[in-house]
Amino acid sequence: MAKVAIIGAGFAGHTAALYLGDALGKSHEITVINLHEYFYYVPSWVWVGIGRMDVNKTRFPLKPVYKKMGVNFVHGKATEIHPDEQYVVVELKDDGQIKHIAYDYLLIATGPKLNYAATEGLGPKYGYTQSICTAPHAVDSRDAYFKQIERMKQGERIKFVVGTGHPGATCQGAAFEYITNIHKDLLRRGLRDKAQLLWLSNEQAVGDFGVRGVHTTIKGQLLSSEDFIKAAFKEYDIAYEVQKGVYKVDANTIYWEDFDGNYGETPYDFAMLIPQFVGIPFKYIGKDGEDVSAKVVNKAGFVKVDAIYDQPYDLLVKNPTAWPELYQNPHYDNIFAAGIAFAPPGPISQPHVTPNGTSITAAPPRTGMVSGIIGR
């Protein structure tokens, strides 16, 4: 009987668990380790953040689902991975006790660490900006949004800034949904004339979304995401500024550097900016107690897989085989990664370095449907 351990129960980890449970649950041991006891439908947090959906409607308990599928569930925080001895150290959520989960195969599907600290003043806990990247953050954003609503009801004009809060941020799609939801909600409330909406992003162009944009054919005509988003912003009266990397935020000002190396400031009343994503900082410990993290993860903490790394962008963009096929670690062939946890071979969008040496490059998105497909 093989033992399969999965760390993380988001789109990638949960999808993998369901497929493995269906195929192997009766003959092999499958264990999911997750910090939270619920599956959260993250895309709905763009609605939670404006008060149009209760956060409890975006989740369901994991354990009953896994029980039906023959999958074990461990509610706790994974802290260490021992690749040579093949076990994961978990701090149990209920009592804080330490448990070792043995595995023959390990899937790391944790999602990201939200690296607010990479941008001074960013984030809801120690900074000044809002977030919709976790359920509690989305609820806090809703509350902060409601405060702005009350100000507008008193006749004040409020500036909302939504976008990315780091030169290397990803997940522009969620931010785009959020700013358009704000627009629609303010229309519904009869307050749109009291608001100024600004899209502030590290993208090369509007509609880039970290993938060099997308194209579709409508009534025989090729339409780019840049054309579509620009048209939507024009119709919704949403201003936009791209090619900007945010490096600092204070109580009422966002500080950025643009592609040309110019520095500037954007005042705001309410800001929701996506932070940089990095890998979850597990300890990777070898059989003699040594640090083996360099064999498993890159400098950002993402798991190295069967991709071709360090290619120049001009070659990478022409070489789809540089992207992983099995999402398998080259040093430990029984360790796999899915979703945001895996290290991509490089950017999809055109990378850019300013004259000051700052990289302003949208990172590849690896969330939602993409994560689910990888997990499958």
Q: Helix tally?
A: 9
Query: What percent strand?
Result: 25-35%
The assigned CATH architecture of the largest domain is 3-Layer(bba) Sandwich
Q: End-to-end span in angstroms?
A: 21 Å
Low-confidence stretches at least 5 residues in length (pLDDT < 50)? Answer: none
Number of domains: 2
Average pLDDT, all residues: 95
Helix content: 10-25%
Identify the CATH class of the largest domain: Alpha Beta
The strand count comes to 21
Q: Based on helices, strands and strand pairing, what is the structural class?
A: alpha/beta
Estimate the global geometry from the Cα principal axes.
Answer: globular
SSE series: EHEEHEHEEEEEHEHEEEHEEEEEEEHHEH
Supply the CATH superfamily name of the largest domain: FAD/NAD(P)-binding domain
CATH fold-level assignment of the largest domain: FAD/NAD(P)-binding domain
Radius of gyration (Å):
22 Å
Largest sheet: 8 strands, mixed
Description:
By secondary structure, the protein is an alpha/beta fold. The chain has 2 domains: 3-43 and 55-112 and 279-345, 3-Layer(bba) Sandwich (FAD/NAD(P)-binding domain), CATH 3.50.50.60; 115-275, FAD/NAD(P)-binding domain. 24% of the residues lie in helices and 27% in strands. Strands 1, 2, 5, 6, 7, 8, 20 and 21 form an 8-stranded mixed sheet that branches. A 4-stranded parallel sheet has the order 14-11-10-18. Helix 1 (11-24) runs parallel beside helix 9 (368-375). The longest helix is centred in the middle third of the chain and has 19 residues, at 135-153. The model has no long low-confidence stretch (mean pLDDT 95).
